[in-house]
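It is worth pausing here to work through a concrete case rather than discussing structure prediction in the abstract. The textbook approach is simple: state the sequence, then state the predicted structure, then interpret. We follow exactly that order.
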Amino acid sequence: MNQAYRIWLALGLGAALAACSGEPAAQKPIQVSNEPAEKQEIVVNNGAEPETLDPHKSSGVPEGNILNQLLVGLTGTDPDGKTVPALAEKWESADNQTWVFHLREAQWSNGDPITADDFVYSMRRVVDPLTASPYASYLGDAKVKNAEEIANGKAKPEELGVKALDAKTLQITLSSPVPYFPDMLVHSSTRPVNAKVVEKHGSKWTLPENFVGSGPLRITEWVVNEKIVLERNDKFFGNADNSISRLTVLPISSPITDVNRFKAGEIDMTYNDLPSDQFKQLKEEMGDQMKISPYLCTYYYEFNHRQAPFDNPKVRRALSLAFDRELFVEKIVGRGEAPAYQLTPTATQGMKDYVPDWKAWDKAKRLEEAKKLLQEAGYSAEKPLKFEILYNTNENHKKNAVAVAALWKENLGFVEAELNNQEWKTYLDGKRNGKFQMARSGWCGDYNEPSAFLNVFKSNNSSNYGRYNSPAYDDLMRRTLAPGVSSEERAELYHKAEAELDKDSASIFAYHYVSARLVKPYLSGYSDRDPLNYWQAKDWKVMKH
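Step two, the predicted structure:
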């Protein structure tokens, strides 16, 4: 029995696909007019119940999707993913180190003016250790003066290199030049919050009755594990181009349920995680409604470097060598993803791709070396390697975890992986606190540049949940922003950083994502061109149908 077939049986895919092997069900075509519908209301699935809607305390994609509607930063992205002015009308820097941003006339949803002081307060809040932000290191990665020292408790928030020159002029001083700094400001962690509201309500400021935002929509209802309702913000500066009056966001974690509710007409747009078992059939049946696009995200299995057995580099290396990425992507995932041999997706701007030497080895050589390493680490048939794989509740993640466990069992024999699924918020909490041995992980770029991925594995990065620690790696990343470094030299340093991650088997990079979702044909303006997948309802319009 060959390997692929064994995994096929382990997953129960034969039966699942046999049940779906008939002719695609006939779908009634949706007739779409060129005229806007009277009701500009839509329902989308967001994949999970958000952990929080505080932009300085969130870290996941489901949270970011909602925050993109509620809050605006200095810069934003257009439908092509390009950085464009947002609350800042323009900006300048003579040296890529001192940046001056000129704010437009804009209001909070309660009518208060948005000022440079709002950004000063908010950026100080992100780096303040009292906030405990999962993105506490982000402004340090961006080289904002004193950000790293503040996050580490070695300086006061008031010493951050952010200053209001006047109500509409913000100066941000960096410790070294960062040519892509405005690109980094598209992320939700850099967006301002209303200081008066936060100070008044504390942790309850994100409740619908208290939330004050700056985006095209405002939150009006939040029923936990059921829905979040957003409605038009009449104070938004860009309302001339905003048609959507009501957006209902659902937290459906099951891709199968997501698709079924889309077919039933209850959802206008699915989450970008279509069930892999149904993907081929869905493409045949509903290809005109399927949107597939590049997506700057990497799916990987993260080691906890501070916990046995993955504090041993030989064990990490063995499992990486024995993981058949091509088989996994083709037979298990099957949506057009690319096998990953580096952290950074190859489509990322400014990336010089890294290819490890062992990629060219045949399967027999990889497995021989993997078994040798495990034996050197003290594992055998008499003493099997046992560990737990943590993943968040989702059919696709479960199927992937079952498959990877089966692959290791099939290829190595004395490997026993136990699966542990947790709901999204519990899963995030466990990862942040190091309560895992191996975890299903995914990282999506906060901006389109290799550092958006590679910064995560720096030893002091707040999103480095596996606690990978390499002085050599840290030094390479530090050098990328040294004075006088050219874009070509920076690309070479990124390449060396990827080599360092491979040398240490920092994680097992499985595949680079694609974004695949179903979108109703009457939802005009949806873009499949943004590799960051930062969808914004303000760009959409419901057409008569």
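Step three, interpretation. Confidence is low (pLDDT under 50) at residues 12-25. The domain at 72-192 is CATH 3.90.76.10 (Dipeptide-binding Protein; domain 1).
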